[in-house]
User: What shape does this take?
Amino acid sequence: MPAVQILHDCCNSLSVVTMLTVPQAIQARGLYDFNGDLDNGELTFSTGETLTIVTQDIGEGWWEARNEAGQQGLIPESYVQLLEPPEPSFPPPPPPSAPVSDWNTPQTEGGDWNNDAWNSHGTESWDQEPPHAPDYTNHNSAGGVNNQGFRGGGVQQQASEEGWDDDWDDENEDNSSNSTTNTSQPNEIKPDAPETTATDKDQLPGSGNFGLSAPKREKKQMTQNSDFSKYGTVKKSFNRFSTFAKTGGDAFLMGTVSANVSESDLIKIIDTQDGPAWNYPSQPYTCAIKSPKKESKLKGLKSYIAYQLTPSFSNIQVSRRYKHFDWLHERLEAKFTCIPIPPLPDKALSVSFGSLSTQGVKGGRYEDDFVSERMRQLQLWVDRMVRHPVISQSEVFNHFLTCTDEKKWKAGKRKAEKDEYQGGKFFLTLQTPPTSLDMRDVEKRMEIFCRFVKGMDDNMRNMLQIGHDSRKKHTGPYKREFQKIGGSFKQLAETFNLDSAAHSQNLTAAIDYTGDTYNEIGDMYEKQPREDLDYMLEVLFEYKGMLSTYPDVLKLHEGAIGKAKECERLKDEGRMPESDVAAVIQRADVISFGTLAEMNHFQRERVADYKEMMQKFLHGQIKFYRDITQKLESALQKYENA
Assistant: This one.
């Protein structure tokens, strides 16, 4: 075949491929007016305006688009409709011509193979369906995943006799948890511990898995560089529609959802001198996590750790794996919209504080140190939950603590995942005081609390950094300095010991004792953080995780107040009846009552926790320096007879 002909055919083929693969611009038309928030990177557009879709994988119901003026930003997918791609204005290019036969080369049987090759391409590319907007995942539906929680993890169906047992491979469970909660955040303080390679990739669910859905959890973060709302603390994000409108908050506020809530489902809020508060139960309880056991399935090929939980109100032990805690966390986040749910400890945790912090976790996730540390951190999380007046009395939490029958567990699991009072509908269950709230007063209180949360978050970061540095100094420089002093005294005593005179022996012994004393003080410095500082750092670390969950809660309340104000404006313009506006404001009060009650609970917990933290820290410090004083006094006593 002549070289010119080969080049001609290659160019034609390249032209075909290029023309068939040029992406079509995706366009959409505005269905409604949208007044975007410039600070939040949103794009304003009007009804009927044509937009070019840039990215559809932003998530949470948001796309990125560009208008005809070249401005680019985020738009809610529910506000636009995709347009059909235009038909091409030019015909497909002609097929490449057949090769010129060489007189000495016989023709292949079948003749025109280039035409067959062209026909095999077809014209399907010209008839492609336009891309569809991604469907919004209902985070409150059964088997769904909450938008605030849980990375990775697909769902597998596990065969069983009944056919209803669903499970997932623990490789997914490995990636499920990132929380307390906690995956490392930017600027997050991590302890001095050797890196651990503990993973769960060798784990499959056992017979006690109870068929949970795949865990997917991401910890919410509030970094120092986050953007803040008008309150000065709420992180601006792309979740404005998912956390308010799409969770049902907008529907609740506008009165488009209703239900006859039974007396047992009502959650009472009372007026106190400190403002709205949850009605605390008359009989609080505790729950102990003990006796972690390594269990296995598939004749020992797959292993996992099961923890034994015993609530004080029943004293009946139940067995739970880490993924059951993960599922519970997801359900609590989905249901209790105005209650920040603290993150769980990491699945493959790095030991945070305590006696393990200097030795790390050795040997993987089945070693005693690793299992004990995770159990201790899970205990802290459960303690926090059982002290909450709403969560501790909830049906899903009670189911988690008490159910021992697998079939009943699955039935309760499905019921929890289909709970009709999730998201915005949770506010239907709130029984609020008959008095109405002053919106301006509520906004003022919210603004103060948001500044409080922002300031406290900054304080936690600063104190964690200082505490972390202090801990390193105790285990490193402080110990070394005292032992250097002790070593110098010991060397001096060795030199003095060369003089065997009787009048010198007592002094030599006293100096040698002083050297031992300083070496012991160095060891005391190394061990002291476990007695006082580690507990303080652990409380600070826990509250840092709790504070990271507040932005979504505060953003939801801000959205409700903004919607109520918008309705008042419509009333003033004569576009909304006064009775409808009054109903909206009344329902906004319900959201405010719930948010204020949770703020009240947070402050009560904070006062109790920080009082105990400071008392333990100071008691530890006093004992530490008292012990040092006693050792120095004992050394001084040796010189009385020197």
The longest strand covers residues 287-297.
